[in-house]
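Aggregate trends can hide what the representation actually does to any particular protein. In the encoding step, the backbone of a single protein was reduced to a row of integers, each denoting a local shape. The record that follows shows the chain in one-letter code together with its fold in token form.

***
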Amino acid sequence: MNPNEAKYIQERTNAILDVIMAYARLDFTQKTEITDQEDVFDAIASGVNMLGEELENSVITLQEREALLQEVHHRVKNNLQIISSLMNLQASYTKDEKFLALIRECRNRIISMSMIHEMLYRTKDLSRIQVADYIKTLTLSINSSFSGSRSDVVFDYDIDAQIYLEAERMIPIGLIINEAVSNSFKYAFPDRKGMIRISFIESGEHFCLKISDNGIGLPETIQTEEFESLGIQLINTLSDQLDAELKIVRDNGLGYELLFRIDN
């Protein structure tokens, strides 16, 4: 797979995800571009646009809002699962390791969002999910995506079970955790055991999210700007969405610390 193909896959995937995120906010004005390539991404884009039109044409009253929200979460979840399945199908036709790794990255990002809508669909208020439950479910899913499962890598959680957050904030949080944990699996523990620690607590007027590993870390001579391939650029962008202060820690491994306001 050449660099142009990889760039094309990422750009099309990100564009589709952006529109699905808009639908999750009940913003049905966004549309996904359909090109003249007539490939699998255009097929997905067409389906997503049709979903948006159906939801936009729905009559929303106070009585219908709860039912509509449930339907939105259900349909968004199903569409994300379809995209994930199509990526799995596409991956089955190649043995190119770089292409397979790219598909896995995109698929894990999609799953991190799909889980949020699955949990919202099953809750009573349809607006918030328990952070602890989500993070634990997500990280186990990421683990299983790397060669089935790595039993030599364990998780240590310190998450306040009383914290619930809405989808608009959980989506970037989930994607940040996905990028950080995936990086640990890919780079931190070459042929060795390891631990990934995740903390999510209240600290004064802020939430504090910490993700770290006890792996081999990064050389001090390498700057974070050089690590687009590690997802650090995406983590920076998602941190901005949360209005969060991001700190990258290189201490006995690699870690990320985010501080953002509770009442944002």
